[in-house]
Amino acid sequence: MALGVILNRVFRTDNNPLFEYVYQNIEDIDQCYYIIPKEDFGNEAKMKRNYYYGTLQKFVHALYENDIQPFLMDYDELVDFFKEKGINEVVIAGDIMSYHKEEYDILHQRENFKKEDISVTTIRANHYFKPSKTRNNKGEPYKVFTSFYKKWRPYLMKRTVYNYDIKDLAKVGVKSKQKLKGDYSQSGISEETAQYKWSDFLDKDIEDYDSNREYLPEVLTSQLSIYLAYGVLDIIQIFNDLLDGYDKDEQNYEAFIRELIFREFYYVLMTQYPKTAHIAFKEKYQNLNWSYNEDNFDLWRKGMTGFPIIDAAMGELNTTGYMHNRMRMVVSQFLTKDLFIDWTWGEEYFRQKLIDYDAASNVHGWQWSASTGTDAVPYFRMFNPVRQSERFDKKALYIKKFIPTLNDVDAKYLHDTYKHERQIKEQGIELGKDYPKQMVNHSESRDHVMSEFKAME
Ligand SMILES: Cc1cc2nc3c(=O)[nH]c(=O)nc-3n(C[C@H](O)[C@H](O)[C@H](O)COP(=O)(O)OP(=O)(O)OC[C@H]3O[C@@H](n4cnc5c(N)ncnc54)[C@H](O)[C@@H]3O)c2cc1C
Fold first, then answer.
1. Theoretical Cys-Cys bridge with 170: which of 48, 67, 278, 444, CB 3.0 to 4.6 Å?
2. In what residue span(s) does the Photolyase/cryptochrome alpha/beta domain sit (predicted)?
3. Is there a binding annotation on residue 33?
4. pLDDT of residue 98
5. Claim to verify: residue 219 and residue 331 sit in the same structural domain
6. What whole-number distance in Å separates Cα of residue 354 and Cα of residue 432?
7. Is 224 assigned to a binding site?
8. Is residue 365 included in any domain, yes or no?
């Protein structure tokens, strides 16, 4: 048999279920083509593209070191390649959600393969739970996180699932002479570095996870979202490690595990309700009268809303490709509530910018904030950006980190710039000239949100 192994963002040599599949079937394999389909990012997502290619390049090097020389091609070249090489069976990670374009998902790819009679084996490589096995007693998917968590948390257990030796897999591998063009050595992450950072997090920061999670000036959380987005670490290994260390500090370990189960929950929802990628999960909110004001959207996108906490967070996203979880909640509420702009615009912008982009977590994160999702924040519990700033960035360290123009202004004036316009001016910053004035009045926005949502009840 000639087998195609599609390493679609499962960029790891250790604990890789696609490699385990080859190992389990090695007797039947004459030729094995290891293939990395490259994603296309267009012009919009430069930082994300570089991160992706940097990670891909590091993975290719790791494969070379193990005597595997993978084939690199665009997604739309896959089928022709299979035909040319006589490959009639492929194995692919079925749970890798789209990173940039939906047509890269197996949901869409499968159709192309089917037309050419290429048989497809899908393997879960990036999630712990199998969606079809996580239904409730009525056979329906869980729609409330707490019930999902209570039911499935006890099923987490230490598992040993990998037996392969990568050297054996190289023996059946057909070697490609292709090289990845360009030098991305300054971007991305290698499997080795990710392993090191993860161990470091387990050694130190996890024991303060609950409080660190809300600390803004620095990122003290795990950044696992980035490693998982590229499949450089294995979720089974992660849960094994967490269960190993659990007794050291149950409270913080459990808080961390809970977040990872959130990720599983959103993944299950997305597979059961794929349309929610574009439309409100709650049917009654599918026809909300959203705004599509491009000027307002632009101000939000560029971090020029006049609310320093919002603008700092957008600065973090635009300059680092990452944003703290708290701030993802705050800026998404600002866009969907204070500006009442359709959440899909924000989701799309995050898609272009986030290096840890994950369709399920992003879509459902946005739907949570927009109050259109399952289990979402009720529309009347709208975040006030000034209160959020006072509470989570009291000393304005985060604000000043991402908006250096405001460095010399006292922190206490930076949460509500409208109220402190005079004091801010006395400290050298004229609103409307050196830094924007607040673009909306929060309490007027609140009235608007109330009336629009009530109209749908
Ligand atoms: C509007 C919005 C958009 C988001 N978009 C994404 C996205 O594109 N990709 C992404 O991975 N996460 C997304 N999240 C979830 C969360 O913000 C990130 O997972 C988290 O900030 C990543 O940092 P970390 O790995 O250091 O998190 P940690 O706090 O160290 O958490 C560990 C892991 O738990 C999971 N996790 C944590 N919080 C959440 C959450 N709220 N929802 C789902 N899983 C969670 C992630 O896998 C994360 O890596 C989004 C949240 C919101 C509100």
1. 67
2. 1-128
3. no
4. 66
5. no
6. 30
7. yes
8. yes
Q: Which of 232, 242, 259 to mutate to test the pocket of ligand 1 (most atoms within 8 A of CB)?
A: 259
List all residues 6 or more positions away from 116 whose beta carbon is below 8 Å from its beta carbon: 79, 82, 83
CA of 90 to the centre of ligand 1 (A): 31
Amino acid at position 213, single letter: R
Residue 164 maps to a domain:
no
Residue labelled with tokens 């729609």: 143
The pLDDT value recorded for residue 99 is: 59
Let me know if residue 170 belongs to a domain. Answer: no
Residues 427 and 305 in one domain: yes
Residues in the chain with pLDDT values less than 50:
none
Query: How far, in Å, is the centroid of ligand 1 from the Cα of 365?
Result: 8
Count of structural domains within the chain: 3
Q: Which residue from 272, 453, 270 is spatially nearest to 364, judged by alpha carbons?
A: 270
List the CATH number of the domain containing 214. Answer: 1.25.40.80
Which residues span the domain enclosing 19? 1-125
Q: pTM value?
A: 0.96
CA of 239 from ligand 1 middle (Å) equals 16
- Pair 34, 91: CB distance under 8 Å: no
- Is the residue at 185 inside a domain? no
